[in-house]
Design a protein that fits this description.
Distance between the termini: 30 Å
Number of helices: 15
Radius of gyration: 24 Å
Low-confidence stretches: none
Number of strands: 20
Shape: elongated
CATH class of the largest domain: Alpha Beta
CATH superfamily of the largest domain: Zn peptidases
Strand content: 15-25%
CATH architecture of the largest domain: 3-Layer(aba) Sandwich
Oligomer: single chain
Mean pLDDT: 95
Structural class: alpha/beta
Number of domains: 2
Length: 459
């Protein structure tokens, strides 16, 4: 996506002129007759995100007028790369200076195409970098989001645990980070029994991916991402409609890798650790079963009520390992529950935090950046729905109510009392095409988390 930004400020480019609806009549009155007739003939009235190309005498575009809101948002220009004729464009000098980076980021996100399996249908229009742009910041954000989208969009046949590990290894090499993985039966030998149990039925061995980066003198930040590379549901098998998008069930892993890329690219003052339990939840004679009792890395026993509630199982071993080093903060990200989508819809990730003020701080950042998140409660009385008659916990609640909360409460059982912790339950998928947000894998809340981390550690 960043390739769609031309950094040659001397190259001739077609200006994009922002016009608020309240200013439209005044602006139109200052134009020549030909321009006024053209604007009216095209029905342009400066509605937000509406645009109209103004031709020169030879028929080539000389400018583009774009309707913007009173306060332009991230998506003001996001539809333009795919809508405008090929060429080089620039933000007009009248563009509000405080929104230049935001508009440029929206343009770049709107330029994204997933081209691993087919060529691009068309080359998006390019944007000339504005002199006020923070190019290093934009590149870090765009490349992190593109990595997240690409990983989620890749079909499971090409994104099994080994492939996910390869992606993490490539990222480690790029930023001189260390990389380690524990694979297959080594998980049992090194006491990650639940990760092994969930992934053992697959022909693709389960593993725990471990990336480390940063100065040992800096505070430790540990990211944990759910890496279920495909989820059949296990023996509690999903219907075909529920299985269709399950290539995205490693979306949490994709998010933490995208976030790690942003952090390392910008050199934030943290000692970063990324843990990804990577499995395929498959069906075979060796699959774990409803009614089984698994002993986790922490020693807590878990009765399996539903093999389709596997994401929280693999996370519990990884969170236990993360907490063993007493990091300043653990953040886990997961495509964990449909219940979060019922509560908040597909666009707004649910965030649970301990202490709750962390989630509230993140929400403030997300509002400022137009990258939605919403704080949700760790309502302790619902722990009664995780009681088992024969084990310490059951992995799925006996009621369909409050499913996102009970999943978060399950994870909290593996977080020490004094440990700072945040859990994001995310859709990681756009079901429709919107400006800057094409149908397919999506990085949600990632920019908000990045800025939250920067403000926490770089202030």
């Amino acid at each position: 996506m960043f390739d769609c930004l031309n950094q040659d400020l001397a190259a001739p480019a077609i200006p994009i002129i922002p016009i608020r609806r309240t200013e439209f009549d005044d602006w139109l009155g200052r134009q020549d007759n030909a321009t006024r007739h053209w604007i009216r003939a095209n029905g342009f009235e400066a509605a937000s995100a509406a645009w109209c190309s103004l031709p020169s005498s030879d028929g080539q575009p000389r400018a583009v007028v774009l309707g913007i809101a009173e306060e332009p948002d991230l998506w003001a220009c996001a539809a333009l790369p795919g809508a405008l004729p090929s060429g080089l464009y620039k933000l007009d000098e009248s563009w509000p200076a405080q929104h230049v980076d935001e508009a440029t980021l929206g343009w770049l996100l709107g330029s994204y195409q997933f081209t691993r399996y087919r060529q691009a249908t068309r080359q998006p229009a390019r944007l000339q970098a504005h002199p006020a742009c923070d190019l290093a910041e934009l590149e870090a954000l765009v490349e992190g989001i593109a990595l997240t989208r690409d990983l989620i969009n890749t079909p499971a046949g090409d994104m099994m645990p080994q492939d996910l590990a390869d992606a993490a290894h490539d990222l480690a090499k790029e930023f001189d980070a260390s990389f380690h993985q524990i694979v297959g039966h080594e998980l049992l030998q090194q006491n990650y029994p639940v990760i092994h149990a969930v992934g053992r039925a697959s022909a693709h061995p389960p593993r725990l991916i471990d990336l480390r980066w940063g100065d040992t003198a800096d505070p430790l930040l540990t990211l944990v991402g759910k890496g279920v590379c495909f989820d059949s549901g296990g023996l509690d098998i999903k219907p075909s409609s529920g299985m269709r998008l399950m290539k995205k069930d490693m979306g949490g892993a994709a998010h933490v890798l995208g976030l790690a890329r942003m952090i390392m690219s910008r050199g934030l003052p943290v000692r970063l650790r990324v843990l990804i339990p990577a499995v395929e939840n498959a069906i075979s004679g060796d699959a774990f079963r409803p009614g089984d009792v698994l002993t986790s890395r922490s020693g807590k026993t878990i009765e399996i009520d539903n093999t389709d509630a596997e994401g929280r199982l693999i996370l519990c071993d990884a969170i236990c390992e993360a907490a063993s080093e007493n990091p300043d903060l653990i953040i886990d990200m997961a495509t964990l529950t449909g219940a979060a989508r019922v509560a908040l819809g597909p666009d707004v990730p649910a965030v649970f935090a301990k202490p709750a003020t962390l989630g509230q701080q993140l929400h403030g950042v997300s509002e400022r950046l137009n990258d939605p998140t919403w704080p949700m409660p760790l309502h302790a009385p619902y722990n009664r729905w995780l009681n088992s008659d024969i084990a310490d916990l059951v992995n799925a609640s006996s009621t369909p109510l409050g499913g996102a909360i009970t999943a978060a409460l399950f994870l909290q059982h593996f977080v020490p009392q004094t440990q700072n912790w945040m859990h994001m339950d995310v859709m990681a998928w756009n079901s429709e095409n919107l400006p800057g947000r094409p149908r397919g894998g999506e990085a949600m809340g990632l920019r908000a988390f990045f800025e939250f981390i920067r403000e926490r550690y770089a202030a």
